[in-house]
Amino acid sequence: MSTRAVARELNVHFSTISCLQRCFREFGSTSNWPHNSRPCETTPAQDLDIQHLHLQDRDQPPGQLLQQSVCITKEFLHKLSSACSSSSSGGVLFTDESRFSLYRADGRQRVWRHVGERFADVNVVDRVAHGGCGVMLWAGVCYGQQTQVHFIDGILNAQRYRDEILRPIVVPFIHDHHLMLQHDNAWPQDLYTVQFLEAENIPVLA
Fold this sequence. Notes:
The chain is of the alpha+beta class. Helix content is 42%, strand content 13%. It has eight helices and five strands, in the order ααααααββββαβα. The protein has helices spanning 3-10, 14-27, 44-56, 62-69, 74-83, 86-89, 158-177, 191-199; strands at 92-101, 134-142, 145-146, 150-152, 180-182. α1 (3-10) packs across α2 (14-27), α3 (44-56) packs across α4 and α7 (158-177) runs parallel beside α8 (191-199). The termini are far apart. This is Transposase.
């Protein structure tokens, strides 16, 4: 049986069978080639479960399906809580901002599909003009506490970051709870922001 005939019989791409044949000729096996990448985090049973979930909801990325289907053991949580004690992270305020959109900006939905399923109804998602709407939020958390959630309307520049977030929210919160500030990597945190925090006696983690 030819390579293309095998590919048609198994409903896979021709290059997949060709690669397996080349691997078998060179190494005598079709197992994964030796590599230095991260080890697999899922078992074959979990991989099969993820495949079944993906066939039911094909516009979900595999990473999200992995988080939904693979459970964390109690032993792992116990070790994690022991390693991250309250004394090591309780005195730090972590802040970040995130944008949440109803749809992708370009209107495209990436889906995984089999050969011959390009126009199948299960793989087609209605497009929303202009990407729909979204919202940008900022918040800070520390051990046992959290700041208020701030809605950011428009573009967040250094001046707005200082006048709308740092001065009314971060500075009072840190002084009240005796914390250190851990910035995210947003670009508005420029030299003027650093000077403002120094003037307000806010300790910042590098």
